[in-house]
Amino acid sequence: MPDTIQRLQIAFFLNDREVRVTVPPDRTALEVIRGELGLTGTKETCSEGDCGACTVALGELADELLVYRAVNSCILPAARLHGRHVITVEGLAADGRLHVIQQQLLDHHAVQCGYCTPGIVMSLFCLFLQRPDPDEAAILEALEGNLCRCTGYVTIRAAARAVAGRLAAAGGEARGLILPAYAADMERRLRAFGEPLRATDSPNADGRPLAGYHVPASLWELWRTLARVGDPARTRFIHGGTDVMVAVNIKRDFPEHLVDLSRIPELHVLLREGDVLRIGAGLTFTDLMESTLVADHLPVLARAAARIGSRQVRNRGTLGGNIANASPIADGAVALLGLDARLVLASAGGERTLPLEQFYKGYKDTDRQPGEIIRAVEVPLTECTHQYLKSSKRPAVDCASVSSLCSARLEDGRVAMCRLAFGGVAVYPALARQTAAFLAGRALDAETVRAAADLAAAEFQTIGDVRGSAAYRRALIRHHVIHHLESLRGNAELCGRHP
Ligand SMILES: Cc1cc2nc3c(=O)[nH]c(=O)nc-3n(C[C@@H](O)[C@@H](O)[C@H](O)COP(=O)(O)OP(=O)(O)OC[C@H]3O[C@@H](n4cnc5c(N)ncnc54)[C@H](O)[C@@H]3O)c2cc1C
Ligand code: FES
Ligand code: FES
After folding, report:
1. Which ligand 3 atom minimizes the distance to the CA of 149?
2. Does domain 212-260 match CATH 1.25.60?
3. All residues at 6 or more sequence positions from 370 whose CB lies less than 8 Å from its CB, including other chains
């Protein structure tokens, strides 16, 4: 970081107290909680969102209601704590008694070295707050982002089931068993919290603001901030931070000006406009999974979102960040490409729309202009059938070796429309154009399916890396195409079989 940096004055609620810290803008929430405030129960292991040892419950107002979500504090900028409530593992035991989750983990011998345990406790805490009666799948999903190298998870899952049993027995008192008493008044306190995030903000000698962290509260404020900062090359946007903060931690890559888009309400819209679903770039993957509008009109997008990272990552990562980051395996971008989405790009000069298929230019190279943001994504609602597939070594917290979305429609057994988007096969998410052209108008018989699969496997210059050799990827492409097309033909029983 340059010498002339801001220091941020952050005020938030930590367990049962209100705290204030003044820190440089590149600090993470974990550094504040452990380093500045001395609560060392929250652990640090990977610093890149993979292990979950640093998980805390972050309480934020959403539509005026307080919602706690599990987040990886190692990749959460400290500035994001401002005006929020954080519950850490230290905030659970009361009156000398362990919290019900801690007690059940202990009773089920679900703790060995204990390094992962605080993170597991906090992930389960957020699960049970939202859903006191989770089934086995929900328990597994809540724990996807928490790595334990000792226990093998059997005892952890048994402990979670025992907590569910205790809550069922408690009936109407269940919430009181989970939520600490001091949090009862927190919704009102957060609503009443009106203090803006302050920074030491005297400008540099040349009149530009000090390097640091900027939090515009509207698009208008964003354009003003960018104008004050001056050179867009000195600026990076941040939304969920699940990519940006990994770079900050691992590469110590903190830009001169980090501009936080998360408080801009215009980026959080989700609405249907005729035959189009307009999705604000700031919606998180969890938002997509929980939205009834998405469930009703584009359930495939929720299914693709569910395959991203872990619960903690989905709680912060946004669709806009996923597209802008331009990773070849970005699940959100691949899904939207298959759905023929258009981007709404906004800058101080106005707005433009661009088909997503024209956005990517090369590896991590996009058509986004300096100072331009992705404001929203527009997805046409059609009568096509959609299917998303992701092949990865692990079902969760793993990038795709190959991913794909097929959007297609048959008429009288012939392909009336087919669009196939792939991730992991090129330097950016890409369409299998030749395969789609081959399929157009053809009767979808077994021979056509095999020919299309062979064509798709030859269509891309696949490369080998840690996620699979080029030959393995070609085999996956074939498998995906057969799976998609056989599903379309109604031969679901063929789909699980690897060709
Ligand atoms: C442990 C872990 C596992 C993951 N697993 C997966 C996975 O399985 N699949 C997958 O696809 N991704 C995965 N990711 C990455 C995924 O979380 C991100 O790509 C996420 O979607 C980015 O959104 P964000 O809001 O966090 O972006 P940020 O990190 O805030 O920003 C990412 C980039 O986008 C830019 N940006 C953000 N918002 C905008 C905007 N509105 N307009 C213009 N530019 C913008 C930023 O400047 C930055 O360059 C994983 C990440 C982690 C840490
Ligand atoms: S330390 Fe591993 S996810 Fe934060
Ligand atoms: S108990 Fe050792 S890592 Fe989980």
Report:
1. 3
2. no
3. 232, 233
